[in-house]
Each structure stands twice: as C-alpha cells, then as structure tokens.
Amino acid sequence: MRQALGDLMRMSRICRMIFATCLGSFILVIFYFQSMFQPVMRRNPFMVDGCCRKGSRNALQELYNPTQSDSSGAAVLHQARRDQVVDACRVYSASSRKRRVLTPADLKHLVVDEDHELIYCYVPKVACTNWKRVMMVLTGQGKYSDPMEIPSNKAHVPSNLKTLNQYTIAEINHRLKNYLKFLFVREPFERLVSAYRNKFTLKYNSSFHKRFGTRIIRRYRKNATQEALLSGSDVKFQEFVEYLVDPATQREGPLNEHWQTVYQLCHPCHIHYDLVGKYETLEEDANYVLGLIDVGDSLRFPSYAKSTRTTDAMTAQFFSNISSQQQVQLYQLYRMDFLMFNYSKPSQLRLD
Length: 352
Description:
By secondary structure, the protein is mainly α. It has helices at 2-35, 59-64, 74-95, 128-139, 152-155, 169-178, 188-200, 206-220, 226-231, 237-245, 247-251, 262-266, 282-292, 312-319, 324-333, 335-340, and strands at residues 110-113, 118-121, 162-163, 180-185, 275-278. Strands 3-1-2-4-5 form a five-stranded mixed β-sheet, sandwiched between helices. It is a single-pass type II membrane protein.
C-alpha cells in the first residue's frame, strides 16, 4: 500500500513537471513573439538580415538608406512621425499598469505583400478601400493593372489579400523584422464622423442599421417608433456618440473596426511602423510609399472625390450638438490616437 502510494505521488510530480514544461514553452513562444516588437522600436531599421530578393534592394532599405538624395524633406518628416509614436507609447506605458501581449489574432488588419516585402495595416475610413485596391494590384501577379478597375466590394473580400495572422509565429516575426510596415491615420473625430455618415445615413448599409442601429435606438431613444426599432436606419449622431461612450458598450467587447481606435487595430505601441501616412496628405504620402518599391509611373495612388469627403468643418458641425461631457469622454476613448499621431486636441474641449 505504501509503495503504491509512493508510485502515485511520483506520477503526480512527473505530470506536474510535464505540464509546467509545456506551459513554459507556450509562454516562451508568446513572449518571444512580443519581444520581437519591443526591441524593434529602437533598433537600426536598416540592419536587416536576409530581407532582400536576389540582387535587389527592398523598400525597407530604400527608406532608411536611399539611393537618391531626398530634396523634399520627406525622410525628416517621417522620422518625426515615428518618434512621435514612440514617445507617446513610452508615456502611456509608464503611466499604465496594463501589459498586453499580442497574438496572431491581433494581426488580421495587417495585409502582406510578399513580392515587394510590404505590410500595410488598414484602418477603415482612412482610404483603406483604395489602399486594398493598390495592394491587390501589387500582389496580383499581373491580374490587375488599374486599382480603380477593381470594384470596391471586391477589395473587401478577405480572400483577395493575405493578412499576417495567417502565418506561423516564426514567419510573422521574420516579416515584422524585415518588411516595410506602414499605416495611414486620420484626425480621430473626423474619422468618427465619416464612419457615422457612411454606416448610418446611407440606405444601402442596411446590415449596419440592423446590427447596430436597432440596438442604439432601443437603448438611447425615448418613445422610439416601431419602424425605427425594426429598421435602425435613422440613428442620430448624438445617439451614436452615447453608444460609444457608454461603459456597457465597452463591456460588450471590441468596437467595430470602422470606429475602433487605430491603437487597437494596428497596435503601434507593439509594432514598429516604418511609415505613418496621413489622410490630410494622402496622395503625397501614398505615392511616397509606392516610390520606395520603384513601381515607376505604372502605378499611382487613386485620387479621391473631395466633394464627398468628411471635412473638419463638417466634423465641427456634427459635434456642435454633443455635450461637453460626452466630448470629453469621447476624447478619452480616442486619446492615444490623438497623441500618437500628433493631432491637436479639439478646440472646443476643455480638459484639466
């Protein structure tokens, strides 16, 4: 009996050791995945290993060690933007007790172009449809030549572009280290108004009306009509803002990608982006990216319809009916996007 009990205890210790070893290996993989992000924030981006196609320079090399002199000052501008992100993330990290470890599931917004060694993190309402079109041209092996020939709905079909979460951990690490990574951003409140106008004021977006509009009207509209409760097609901007700042919304899980923060979509405090383009200088910044991969005049970034875009004046008009308290709450929600990308605090806000 004593011997059997001893054997049982030894087996128990062995099982615990095996479990601890497996768990340790799993954690090691995760932290190795995270550690690839942290050092890259301060590494020399030109020191890449095995990054290039045979006998050629990739976009990452061309960015940090250009073959031609830059008379436009773009290199200085983009370095300042990178520094702004790093500084904002450092301040946030020092003041926050939260520690986040990324997993491959967090990388579903990072589109990969193997041929030109690019990674693009798409942000809805920041010209992402046209950028997806461009990426389809770049990765299509000659199937497409003109981005605007690609229907907008086709650009958003997930299977048409490969994203970073589809790779193994080792493959993810290699690409994060050796490919040029870029994203485009926009003034947060302007992006929010653009998302509202597109998803809640256009009749063809009935899926958003059903999924979000009905919920918003049910929660925040007193004496709502039965038609409004069923269709969700006439959500007011004030109701949309109330939904965003409601703690109950935060408890429901991540926000929809069209109004989720760039901080949460692209994780710029974990992933070092080599280029941060801005919607305000969209064509200039976009063609700078394309210039780094030397596509010449064969591919230019599509022009956009300025007559339909959401402007800062339009944004101010939408926010004129939003209470000061809700504006402050909304600013806090998007605060990291304001800080990381050097957007000024909205003039109407008074924050202590």
